[in-house]
Structure to design on (501 residues):
C-alpha cells in the first residue's frame, strides 16, 4: 500500500507533485494549529466553568449560613433555587455539619448529589462536581455540592469543530489557488527544460535554447543545459568538419597515391625503354665499328686507299657516337651526384649558340631547316660555364632539328627577364610538339614523349642533362607548346655571379 502510494506519487507530473506537497503541508499545518486551538480553548472553557461554579457555590454557601444555623431548610432550598437561572447547574445540595442532606435543588433527575467531600472540583461522567465547605466565624457548619452539565463546553467544542472544518476547507482552497500560482514559478523553467530535452532526444535537434526565468538553482541548471547544448553543437560542427577534412584528405591521398603509382609505372616503363634504347644506341655504332673493321681487315689488300679511309672514318664516327653516349651518361651521373665542376664566367650567350649552330649546320642543311635568331636588345651576357651551355644549346637544338619537319624554321630568342636578373633564351621549332601533360616529364631521365617514342632512337638523357646543368647555374628550364604546333624550350641564366652556398 505504502509502495503503491509512493509509486503513484513518483509518477505524478512535477507540477502536481508540488501542488500535492504544498496542499498536504498546508492541510497538516491547519489541522495541527486548529487542534491545538480547540484543545486550548476547551480547556480554558473548562477552567472558566470550574471558577464560575466555585464562585456560585461560595455565594450560595455564604448566603445559606444563617439558614443552616437556624435549621431553616426552606430558606436554604430557596437559596438553591436561585441556581435555576444558571441552566448548566443540574443538581445542588447543602449538607449540614453532620453531612446530612439539608436542602437540595434538582433540575434533572439524571444525577444524584454525591456525598460531600473535601473542597475540590472534578470532571466526572460528563459532569463537573464542585465541593465546598460552608464556614461561619472560621468553623465548618456544612458543605455544598454543585453538579453542572458540560453542555456549554460541548456546544463551544462543536462550534469550534465546525469552524475548523470550514477553515480547513477554505484555507485549503486558498492554499490550492496560491500554490498553483507558486508552482508555476518552479514548474515553468522545468517545463522549458523538459520540452528542450524532449526535442533533443526525439528529433536530435540541438539548436534549442531554454529561456532562463529564475536566478536560483533552476536558473543555473538552465544555463548549464544551454551551455551543454552549445558545446554539443560546437563538437557536432567540429566532427562534421573533421569528417569533411578526412574525406578530402583521403581523396587527396588517394589521388597522390594514384599519381605516385602512375609515376612509378612510367618510371618502370622508362627504364625498360631506356634499356631497349640503350642497347639499340650502343649496338648500332658497335655494329658499324665491327662491320667496317671487318671490311677493312678483309679488304686491306684489295680495296683502294680511299675506300679504306671511308671505313676508318665510319669507325671513327661510330666510336665518337659511342663516346658521346657514354659521356652523356657519365655527365648525368656526375651532375646528379653534384660532382660536376662549373667554371662560371661572364660570357656572351651568342658564343655557345654560334658554336653549336656551326656544329649542326650539316644537320640543318640536310633537313633544309632555317634558323632565326631574335634579340630584344643588346643585353646578351650572363654568368655561365661556356662548355656546359654549349652542351645545353646542342641538346636543345639537336632535339629541335630531330623533331622538326623538313623545311621548317627554328627560332631562337634571347631577351633579359623583367627584373633584368636573368637572361631568357627560348628555342622554338615547328615540329611535332609535346602533349600538354608530358611537358614536365620529358625532363625526367630516359623519358620520351608519347608522340615520339616510336621515332628514331634516343636515350632520353639530353633534357635531364640540360635541366641539371641549368640548375647548377641557378637558372631553370621548362617547355611549352607554341600556338603554331611546335615545341618551345625556354631556359634562364643569371646575369650576375651566383652566390655559392
Ligand atoms: N623539340 C622537341 N619537339 C618535340 N619533342 C621533343 C623536343 N625535344 C625533346 N622532345 C621530347 O623529349 C624527349 C626527351 O628528349 P631528350 O631528353 O633530348 O632525349 P632524346 O633526344 O634522347 O630522346 C624526346 O624523346 C622527345 O620525345
Ligand atoms: Mg635529345
Amino acid at each position: 500500500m505504502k509502495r503503491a502510494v509512493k509509486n503513484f506519487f513518483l509518477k505524478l507530473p512535477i507540477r502536481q507533485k508540488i501542488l500535492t506537497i504544498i496542499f498536504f503541508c498546508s492541510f497538516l499545518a491547519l489541522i495541527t494549529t486548529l487542534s491545538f486551538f480547540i484543545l486550548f480553548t476547551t480547556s480554558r472553557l473548562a477552567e472558566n466553568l470550574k471558577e464560575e461554579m466555585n464562585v456560585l457555590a461560595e455565594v450560595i454557601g455564604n448566603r445559606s449560613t444563617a439558614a443552616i444555623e437556624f435549621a431553616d431548610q426552606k430558606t436554604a432550598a430557596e437559596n438553591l433555587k436561585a441556581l435555576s437561572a444558571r441552566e448548566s447547574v443540574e443538581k445542588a445540595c447543602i449538607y449540614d455539619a453532620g453531612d446530612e442532606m439539608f436542602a437540595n435543588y434538582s433540575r434533572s433527575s439524571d444525577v444524584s448529589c454525591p456525598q460531600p467531600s473535601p473542597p475540590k472540583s472534578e470532571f466526572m461522567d460528563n459532569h463537573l462536581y464542585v465541593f465546598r465547605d460552608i464556614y461561619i466565624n472560621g468553623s465548618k457548619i456544612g458543605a455544598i455540592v454543585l453538579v453542572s452539565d458540560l453542555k456549554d463546553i460541548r456546544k463551544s467544542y462543536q462550534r469550534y469543530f465546525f469552524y475548523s472544518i470550514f477553515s480547513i476547507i477554505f484555507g485549503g482552497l486558498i492554499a490550492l489557488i496560491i500554490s498553483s500560482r507558486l508552482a508555476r514559478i518552479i514548474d515553468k523553467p522545468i517545463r522549458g527544460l523538459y520540452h528542450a530535452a524532449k526535442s533533443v532526444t526525439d528529433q536530435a535537434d540541438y539548436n534549442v535554447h531554454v529561456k532562463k526565468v529564475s536566478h536560483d538553482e533552476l536558473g543555473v541548471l538552465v544555463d548549464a543545459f544551454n551551455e551543454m547544448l552549445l558545446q554539443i553543437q560546437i563538437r557536432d560542427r567540429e566532427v562534421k568538419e573533421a569528417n569533411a577534412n578526412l574525406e578530402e584528405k583521403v581523396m587527396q591521398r588517394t589521388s597522390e597515391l594514384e599519381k605516385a603509382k602512375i609515376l612509378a609505372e612510367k618510371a618502370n616503363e622508362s627504364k625498360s625503354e631506356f634499356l631497349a634504347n640503350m642497347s639499340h644506341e650502343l649496338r648500332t655504332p658497335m655494329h658499324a665499328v665491327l662491320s667496317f673493321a671487318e671490311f677493312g681487315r678483309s679488304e686491306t689488300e684489295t680495296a683502294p686507299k680511299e675506300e679504306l679511309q671511308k671505313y676508318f672514318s665510319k669507325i671513327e664516327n661510330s666510336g665518337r657516337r659511342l663516346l658521346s653516349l657514354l659521356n652523356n651518361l657519365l655527365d648525368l651521373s656526375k651532375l646528379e651526384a653534384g660532382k660536376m665542376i662549373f667554371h662560371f664566367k661572364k660570357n656572351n650567350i651568342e658564343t655557345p649558340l654560334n658554336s653549336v649552330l656551326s656544329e649542326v649546320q650539316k644537320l640543318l642543311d640536310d633537313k633544309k631547316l632555317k634558323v632565326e635568331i631574335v634579340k630584344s636588345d643588346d643585353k646578351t651576357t650572363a654568368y655561365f660555364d661556356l662548355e656546359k651551355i654549349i652542351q645545353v644549346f646542342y641538346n636543345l637544338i639537336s632535339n629541335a632539328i630531330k623533331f622538326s619537319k623538313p623545311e621548317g624554321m627554328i627560332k631562337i630568342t634571347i631577351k633579359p627577364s623583367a627584373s633584368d636578373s636573368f637572361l631568357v633564351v627560348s628555342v622554338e621549332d615547328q615540329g611535332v610538339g609535346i602533349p600538354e601533360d608530358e611537358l614536365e616529364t620529358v625532363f625526367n631521365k630516359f623519358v620520351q614523349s608519347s608522340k615520339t617514342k616510336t621515332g628514331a632512337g634516343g636515350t632520353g638523357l639530353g633534357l635531364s642533362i640540360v635541366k641539371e646543368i641549368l640548375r647548377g647555374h641557378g637558372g631553370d628550364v621548362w617547355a611549352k607548346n607554341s600556338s603554331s604546333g611546335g615545341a618551345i624550350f625556354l631556359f634562364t641564366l643569371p646575369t650576375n655571379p651566383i652566390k655559392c652556398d
